[in-house]
Amino acid sequence: MAPIPGAGLAKGLAVTLRTMTRKTVTEQYPDVQPELPPRTRGVIGLFEENCTVCMLCARECPDWCIYIDSHKETVPAAVEGGRERSRNVLDRFAIDFALCMYCGICIEVCPFDALFWSPEFEYAETDIHELTHERDRLREWMWTVPAPPALDPAAEEPKELAAARKAADKLAAAQAAAAEEPTPGESTPGESTPGEEGPA
Ligand code: SF4
Ligand code: SF4
């Protein structure tokens, strides 16, 4: 069958018309910030207080882009006659985001919850060396880590929360007891102070 003259043009115009009436999907970034899912893998934050320098993340990283330096310190015995202990002290923790492939293995394997995903992604640099984020920068990313999702109402209270609540209750009880104790020199109601005469 011979082609109808102008059919191709009509087909093209039909596509144009259909597209013109559809809702636009173009993101006006950077004027408008994109709405990212909470589990976006943007950058990795380090909560170094939780890090025990176990090196697991550095060993498991497929790109070998986690650099950790540490030294050992001796901790004196907690009780007299006890044994001294040694612990690792973190000297350097850095991630080279020029090499990182955002697989998340380091975060998965960290047994001490010291690494977290942050959805922040605006850290492009003109110098590739600047993409190696040292521990201070990795710590700063922690402020951008979203809060964990709410617990299921029927779920058991997490062990950490229960322990923290118990400690807080104990502290509050100790403070209340201390506040009730009379301070030296202060008389309790019904008790006469030294030198004060009772009724004859
Ligand atoms: S996300 Fe993957 S590649 Fe990146 S630092 Fe962690 S383990 Fe290495
Ligand atoms: S796995 Fe976790 S605790 Fe161990 S060195 Fe890495 S960040 Fe620190």
Average pLDDT level: 89
> What is the approximate shape?
elongated
Q: How far apart are the first and last residues' alpha carbons, in Å?
A: 133 Å
User: How does CATH name the architecture of the domain at 35-144?
Assistant: 2-Layer Sandwich
Low-pLDDT parts are 195-200
Strand content: 15-25%
**Could you describe the largest sheet, including whether it forms a barrel?**
3 strands, antiparallel
Counting H and I runs of at least 4 residues, what is the number of helices?
5
CATH class assignment of the domain at 35-144:
Alpha Beta
Ligand inventory: iron/sulfur cluster
How are helices and strands ordered from N to C? HEHEEHEEHH
Radius of gyration: 32 Å
Strand arrangement, largest sheet?
A: 2-3-5
EC number: 7.1.1.-
Membrane topology: Peripheral membrane protein
Binding site for [4Fe-4S] cluster 1: 51, 54, 57, 110
InterPro entries: 4Fe4S_Fe-S-bd (IPR017896), 4Fe4S_Fe_S_CS (IPR017900), NADH_quinone_OxRdtase_chainI (IPR010226)
Task: Annotate the secondary structure layout.
Elements: H1 7-21, E1 43-46, H2 56-60, E2 66-75, E3 85-96, H3 105-109, E4 115-118, E5 132-133, H4 135-140, H5 159-180
Antiparallel strand pairs: 1-4, 2-3, 3-5
The chain binds iron/sulfur cluster (SF4) (2 copies).
How does this structure look, described?
[4Fe-4S] cluster 2 binds at residues 61, 100, 103, 106. This protein is α+β, with helices and mostly antiparallel strands and 200 residues long. It has a domain at 35-144: 2-Layer Sandwich (Alpha-Beta Plaits), CATH 3.30.70.3270. Helix content is 26%, strand content 16%. The chain contains five helices and five strands, in the order αβαββαββαα. The strands form two sheets. The protein has a three-stranded antiparallel sheet with strand order 2-3-5. It has a two-stranded antiparallel sheet with strand order 1-4. The longest helix has 22 residues, at 159-180. The protein is elongated. 10% of the residues are buried. The structure holds iron/sulfur cluster (2 copies). One iron/sulfur cluster is lined by residues 51-57, 68, 110, 112, 114-115.
